[in-house]
Design brief:
single chain, mainly alpha
Amino acid sequence: MSCVTIDQSSLPTAFQAEQALLGALLHNGAPALTAAGAITRDQFADPLHGAIYQAIIARIEAGQPVDAVALAHEAEDLGALDDVGGAPYFQQLLAAGEGPLAVGDAADLMRAARVQREVAA
C-alpha cells in the first residue's frame, strides 16, 4: 500500500469567496449573515478570515455596529491589528464585498471547498 502525501497548499481555499463574504458582512451586517446561511468559523480555510468572521458574529450578536473601522479598532485594542493585515486589509475586504459574487454563492463556494479539503486530507 502506498502512502500519498498531499500538498496542503494545493487544496482549494475559496480565498476570494471568503473575502467576498466578509466584505458583504462588513457592508450589510445581519442581513448578509442571514443570506450566507449556516457558516461556521471552521469553514474558513484561512484562520485569519475565521477570526474576523467570529469578531463580526460577536458584534452582530451584541447588537453592535459591524464596520471596518470598528473591527480595526477592536483588533488594535487586542494587539492583533498587524495579525489581521492592518487597517488596509479591512478596506480590501470591503472592496471584495462589493464584487459580483453574491453572499449565498460565496458561502456555497466555501462549503464546497471545505468538503474538497476534507476529501483530499
